[in-house]
Design goal:
CATH class of the largest domain in chain A: Alpha Beta
Strand order of the largest sheet of chain B: 3-2-1-4-5-7-6
Radius of gyration of chain A: 18 Å
Structural class of chain B: alpha/beta
CATH superfamily of the largest domain in chain A: Vaccinia Virus protein VP39
Largest sheet of chain B: 7 strands, mixed
Number of strands of chain A: 10
Oligomer: heterodimer
Largest sheet of chain A: 7 strands, mixed
Distance between the termini of chain A: 8 Å
CATH architecture of the largest domain in chain B: 3-Layer(aba) Sandwich
Helix content of chain B: 25-40%
Strand content of chain B: 15-25%
Structural class of chain A: alpha/beta
Shape of chain B: globular
Radius of gyration of chain B: 18 Å
Order of helices and strands of chain B: HHHHHEHEHEEHEHEE
Strand order of the largest sheet of chain A: 3-2-1-4-5-7-6
Number of domains of chain A: 2
């Protein structure tokens, strides 16, 4: 299905409570002029840092950009896929959670959520948000020493395109070891700058995970400018029974792949 | 926060239960940590009417959290997310919100949400939950004795969201809600029809899904779609109706 781009409407005014929350977190350091999901300010900001790793760890601008992006609603279509996968207490690992917008939303659906990301400002903000809501969800810092428990679902959104190509396929393999079902998006951005956005070969990666087992995929966003976002679902919980079709078994209760999933 | 109770069959505490524990304090009832309907109905028989029950019975909050954790409504939310993509800023009225589980999820998803229900402890708990999460969102009280629009002055919204409400109304009120009351408040109505195999006629009334669907289809002049979910072996199911509010209903009218 092809979609035309929507205009940006996540920016103030009027403010959403989530902007107010960010302002509270940052206090005097809050910058209203950064309340946007525009990439241009991010590109300007990244130039101020000697290396991109330092930028990710120390810069506040991603807190603004990720919130603006969240409020624009792009991720709700990804959520609609997850929400159809099963009933009951399902554990979700929000891997590369950033500020944790997905995971906090999932908590309200009755899922059990674990957050995980590299150390940095986004994870600090995520931990603050979770604590502020008195949620007792685990927030894991991926510092090379943390042990990640096995989950029903691994949710990894807007992560792969930030990795250099050599690391992207390794990440897909790693995710497959962390839970029964992996849901990941592959964003092919024609304007990949090679600094914070890298090209993503969605066809090669889809073929890679399919070589290891059944996988479902759907190009959720096909934009006129050539950008494509593919949702890829794979892992030991995805099977193809002899009766045909594809089954996703999140936690022992198998269900057919909903037609809506591929709508 | 008081000491944690034993979580029983739930095995561990979801943050929603921790939230209820923080709210209820010493009045927390661990024995109500169940999603069995029988406990709800048994408690309901202690009250003189369904309205009194919903306004006063503490057990309803436990039941609503349990139902949310079981995930019955996730597929309904999926439809909302699919339908509203690209619509621009979407405002939602969570009509008959109870403790606001749906609306809170929508707030977290970035929608602008308002809530409406009859006054009582459920709405009190919702206000506390909004405060607890530091959300500001309008909460409107519906007068159960005068269900007309004059008692509910809320701005018109994009979507009226009304879930698990119809089955609590007597059949003669159900059509009125679907075809007159809900369309007053927004442009598109999302409502579910929940069939109950054995309606207790206290907290759950009989819902004639096919008849009500036909009535809404006639009202919406074809601009109505429906989807069946959670179909059980007993024949019980949830039907999600999505339909356009017709222009006539944007005018003020009174309940017959």
């Amino acid at each position: 299905m092809s979609e035309t781009p929507t205009r940006s409407y996540g920016n103030p005014p009027p403010w959403h409570p989530l902007w107010a929350e960010l302002a509270l977190f940052l206090g005097e350091a809050f910058r209203p002029d950064w309340c946007s999901d525009e990439d241009t300010k991010v590109f300007e900001e990244v130039k101020r840092y000697p290396e991109v790793a330092t930028f990710y760890r120390e810069s506040d601008i991603l807190l603004y950009q990720s919130l603006g992006y969240w409020l624009n609603g792009w991720k709700r279509r990804y959520h609609s896929v997850l929400l159809q996968l099963g009933m009951g207490r399902i554990s979700i690992l929000d891997y590369g959670c950033g500020a944790g917008y997905d995971g906090v939303c999932f908590l309200d659906y009755g899922y059990d959520v674990t957050f995980a990301d590299l150390p940095g400002r986004s994870l600090d903000f995520c931990r603050w948000r979770v604590t502020r809501r008195a949620y007792e969800a685990q927030v894991l810092t991926l510092d090379g020493h943390v042990e990640i428990p096995f989950h029903h679902v691994v949710w990894c959104m807007d992560v792969i395109e930030h990795l250099p190509p050599a690391e992207q396929v390794r990440m897909l393999d790693l995710l497959g070891t962390l839970g029964r079902v992996v849901i990941v998006n592959l964003i092919h951005d024609v304007r990949a700058d090679g600094v914070i956005h890298y090209p993503v070969d969605r066809e090669a990666f889809t073929a890679h995970v399919q070589s290891q087992g059944p996988a479902a995929f759907h190009d959720v966003y096909v934009m006129p400018d050539g950008n494509v976002t593919r949702l890829l679902i794979y892992g030991q919980g995805v099977t193809c029974p002899s009766s045909g079709g594809m089954v996703i078994d999140v936690h022992g209760v198998a269900g057919p792949l909903s037609p809506l999933l591929m709508a | 926060m008081p000491d944690r109770p034993e979580w029983g069959v739930l095995q561990s505490a979801h943050p929603h239960y921790m939230e209820l524990l923080a709210y209820a304090g010493g009045a927390f009832h661990p024995e109500w940590l169940t999603t069995q309907l029988s406990a709800l109905v048994e408690e309901g028989r202690k009250y003189e009417s369904a309205q009194t029950f919903y306004a006063q019975a503490q057990i309803v909050a436990y039941h609503l959290i349990g139902a949310a954790l079981e995930g019955w409504k996730r597929c309904l939310h999926a439809q909302l997310y699919m339908r509203t993509h690209g619509m621009g800023p979407v405002t939602i009225l969570d009509y008959g919100c109870g403790i606001g589980g749906d609306g809170l999820a929508f707030l977290d998803a970035g929608y602008r949400v308002s809530f409406a229900d009859i006054s009582g402890h459920l709405l009190d708990f919702l206000r506390w939950r909004l405060w607890w999460r530091r959300y500001t969102a309008p909460v409107y009280e519906i007068d159960p004795l005068r269900y007309d629009e004059k008692t509910l002055r809320c701005p018109r919204v994009t979507i009226v969201w009304c879930m698990d409400v119809l089955e609590h109304f007597v059949p003669e009120m159900q059509k009125w809600l679907l075809c007159e009351q809900l369309p007053r408040f927004g442009d598109i109505v999302f409502v579910n029809l929940l069939s109950t195999h054995t309606p207790d006629e206290l907290v759950h009334q009989a819902v004639d899904i096919e008849e009500l669907t036909a009535q809404v289809q006639a009202y919406a002049k074809g601009q109505c779609q429906y989807y069946d979910y959670n179909v059980l072996a007993t024949g019980e199911k949830t039907r999600l109706l999505i339909y356009q509010a017709m222009p006539a209903c944007k005018k003020e009218k009174h309940r017959p």
